[in-house]
C-alpha cells in the first residue's frame, strides 16, 4: 500500500495499469488526448506489481485493479468512473486543480 500511495502522490495524474489491458490503454489515451501527461505504472513490468495490484484492488473494492487513476494524489477510480467524468465534462476542473492541465 505504501508503494501505491508514494507513487500516486508524485505526479498530478498517475495511472496504474497493465501493458496488456485495453482499458488501461484507453484511459491513458484519453488523458493524452486531453493534453495531460500521466505518469503510467505498468504493474506487469514492476517487480512489486503483484503487491501493488492487491493494494489497488482493496482500495477500489473490486477484483479488477487496473486501470486505477489518481488525480492530485487522490484515488478517482477505474475506467467506469473516469469515462463517466469525461462524458459529463467534469475531469477538466479536477485536472486543472491538480496542475495537470492549464486550459
From TrEMBL:
The lineage of its organism: Eukaryota, Viridiplantae, Streptophyta, Embryophyta, Tracheophyta. Its main location: cytoplasm. It comes from the Eukaryota. InterPro entries: GlrX-like_pln_2 (IPR011905), Glutaredoxin (IPR002109), Thioredoxin-like_sf (IPR036249). Residues 13-76 form the Glutaredoxin domain. One of its GO terms (cellular component) is cytoplasm. This is Glutaredoxin family protein. Has a glutathione-disulfide oxidoreductase activity in the presence of NADPH and glutathione reductase. Reduces low molecular weight disulfides and proteins. The keyword DNA-binding does not apply. CDD domains: GRX_GRXh_1_2_like. Belongs to the glutaredoxin family. CC-type subfamily. The keyword Protein transport does not apply. Keywords: Cytoplasm, Electron transport, Redox-active center, Transport. It is found in: Cytoplasm. It comes from Rhynchospora pubera.
Amino acid at each position: 500500500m505504501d508503494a501505491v500511495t508514494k507513487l500516486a502522490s508524485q505526479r498530478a495524474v498517475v495511472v496504474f495499469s497493465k501493458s496488456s489491458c485495453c482499458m488501461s490503454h484507453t484511459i491513458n489515451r484519453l488523458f493524452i488526448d486531453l493534453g495531460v501527461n500521466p505518469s503510467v505504472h505498468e504493474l506487469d513490468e514492476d517487480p512489486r506489481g503483484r503487491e501493488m495490484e492487491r493494494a489497488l484492488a482493496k482500495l477500489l473494492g473490486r477484483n479488477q485493479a487496473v486501470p486505477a487513476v489518481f488525480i492530485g494524489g487522490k484515488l478517482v477510480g477505474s475506467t467506469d468512473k473516469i469515462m463517466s467524468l469525461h462524458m459529463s465534462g467534469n475531469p477538466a476542473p479536477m485536472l486543472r486543480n491538480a496542475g495537470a492541465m492549464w486550459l
